[in-house]
Amino acid sequence: MRNSVPFESAGPVAVVSCHVERPLDDAAWGRFERLQRRRPGGFDVIALIRPPDPDYGEDEARWLERARLAASRARFGLHTHWTSPTHARPTGGDPSERVRHETQFLRERGLDPVYFCGGGWYTDDAVRAAVAELGLIDCTPRSGKPGPGVLPTTHSLGALARAVVRPLPRYVHAYFHDFDLLDVRRRYALSASLAVLGRRATKI
Ligand SMILES: [Zn+2]
Q1: How far is the CA of 79 from the centre of ligand 1 (A)?
Q2: Distance from Cα 9 to the centre of ligand 1, integer Å
Q3: Statement: residue 1 has pLDDT above 80
Q4: What's the whole-model pTM score?
Q5: What pLDDT band is residue 189 in, cutting at 50, 70 and 90?
Q6: What spacing in Å lies between the alpha carbon of 11 and ligand 1's midpoint?
Q7: Is 149 within 8 Å of 138 (Cβ atoms)?
Q8: Average pLDDT value for residue range 192-198
């Protein structure tokens, strides 16, 4: 079933996603693209991509090329920034409308988002209802277990680095941002953590 994730497992399970915040920034995109191709720890890194924002002159053609590449390599999702490319949380209007609109934008271009993650971790009842109605799996919650329609995001880069040297939680959903990869120390920390995580957990 598309909208559910196998989570009944004897040992720890893990999944990794990237908030692709700067899909049109060549440096950030280049780092993400290489990382996703390299599959650190054996993980298919889920791209949670922010669609191009025409109000800020973002180039749709280049965006589409990149989004299609990311979606060809791993499951793929929508990352909504409600206000601007650099301001994730909403400042007005009906946030659920933007989720519907952006999902439609992706689908009209042949992209099939499986996941959703609200920018700045924002959500509300109407957004949750829209996400469920659109058949997307919600990665916005920051705790809890995976289940039908939900795949909580549990570990930042720092939390992941600490978690992998201890008894592993039963469920780890690690996330990072594309721009984290521009920092050499963060990049190495991520690769090292994912190498350990990949050995210790079952990938879901
Ligand atoms: Zn974001």
Answers
A1: 6
A2: 31
A3: no
A4: 0.94
A5: very high
A6: 31
A7: yes
A8: 98
Three-class secondary structure assignment of the chain: CCCCCCCCCCCCEEEEEEEECCCCCHHHHHHHHHHHHHCHHHCCCEEEECCCCHHHCCCHHHHHHHHHHHHHHCCEEEEECCCECCECCCCCCCHHHHHHHHHHHHHHCCCCCCEEEEHHHCCCHHHHHHHHHCCCEECCCCCCCCECCECCCCECHHHHHHHCCCCCCCEEEEEEEHHHHHCHHHHHHHHHHHHHHHHHCEEC
Which tens digit of pLDDT belongs to each residue from 109-143? 999 999 999 999 999 999 999 999 999 999 999 99
Q: How far apart (Å, rounded) are the C-alpha atoms in residues 146 and 137? A: 10
Please give the distance, rounded to the nearest whole angstrom, from the Cα atom of residue 5 to the centre of ligand 1.
Answer: 23
Quote the crossing angle between the two packed helices 26-38 and 60-73, to the nearest 10°: 20
How far is 157 from 189, CA to CA, in rounded Å? 8
Ligand 1 centroid from CA 87, angstroms: 8
Residue in this structure with the two tokens 């559910």, named with its chain if needed: 4
